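User: I'm preparing a small set of examples for a lab meeting where we compare how different chains pack in three dimensions. I only have the primary sequence for this one, and I'd like the structure in token form so I can line it up with the others. Please keep the answer compact; I'll paste it straight into my notes.
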Amino acid sequence: MSNFFKKGQRESLKKQKKDVKKRIKRIYQIMDELDVVAAKMFRTGKEVTEENVAELAYEFTDLKIEGMESMMLQGKIHNLKEHYGDKEVPNDIEAIRRGDFVTSEEV
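Assistant: Understood. Below is the structure token output for the 107-residue chain.
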């Protein structure tokens, strides 16, 4: 193989890795935004079902909520319900990730 051909392969691999890195970064951004949206939806106290999850989410985000996002959002809300129950959900998203909570007596 010539050096010219190898250089083209290296550049192609570099471009592919860069594209993958961008896609992964975008996925993590979406997941972080879904954390925030799930916490806001849980604070409203409205019942979230498969039919109304997209409509309720549009109040808090401009993300297009479809199949996978809908399923992830429902799972995050379910986890919040299990973890917090009747306790108040903190406003800080990092506190939610750590599992901190505020009881109604402390508010």
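A couple of notes for your slides: Residues 11 and 17 are 10 Å apart (CA to CA). The chain is about 65% helix and 0% strand.

User: Perfect, thanks.
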